[in-house]
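queue> holo job accepted (zinc ion)
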Amino acid sequence: MDGNERWVSGRLQHPDRDPDRRQLVAQEQEPFGSVLSCIDSRVPPELLFDTGLGDLYVMRTGGQAVGPVVTGSVEYGPMTSATPLIVVLGHQRCGAIKAAYQSLHDSKPLPGNLQAIVKALRPAYEQAVKEGGADPVETMTRAQVKLTATELRANADLAPLVRKGSLAVVGAYYSLDTGKVEVLSGKPS
Ligand SMILES: [Zn+2]
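queue> job finished
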């Protein structure tokens, strides 16, 4: 979050991005967080948290949708090297969420593998329909983040780590307009 403040204000440090850092982490890595975010070109976690080489595991899918391969990748850090933090990061004006919302709303499947993303986002769609609100796509984006974070927190392999207090699973939202990351759920105490 300190890094995100630097991103918002423009006082960037660009840490861990020199040859010394490259050498330091060449043999072993110890990232402090795993971020699951969207493929959107405007939401690269390393930039918006002002981090560098070896700092984060990053998984990116359309609308940060998950399936077994992605979930396995998110679990990798916490389960194999005690990474203490998972962040599920949604964002403003998400094209993937918007397309999935439209597809489900109009009962018009998307072509090819895109439909797999729509399917994965269905629970968030249903939650958004239930919640209502002025901007259903925005509601669905936040629902997608919170549902995914809740699911990860409760999953059989991660729940024991969360209970022990050695892992936090945070749901967060990124504003394209301001660059600010807002924590939605799971803030560590
Ligand atoms: Zn997106």
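queue> The pocket of zinc ion is lined by residues 38, 40, 63, 91, 94-96 (CB under 6 Å).
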